[in-house]
Design goal:
single chain, 71 residues, alpha+beta, 1 helix, 4 strands, globular
Amino acid sequence: MKKDELARLQTYLRKTFGAPSLEVKAQPKKTDMAEVFIGGEFVAALYKEVEDGETSYQFQMAILDMDLEGV
């Protein structure tokens, strides 16, 4: 993904999740994927899909059982 695209996605996700420390970083070996971090911790993968001339983004976040302990 291009720098301006990453910046737009980061702004959108920060606003949507109310997380000013959220960062979207390019995945160096892939042009259709980025990584999402909050407070320096990896939280999700972001995939770009282009189909029939339309672009969409998929936010994929895994939540482990151990992450839910004490909640």
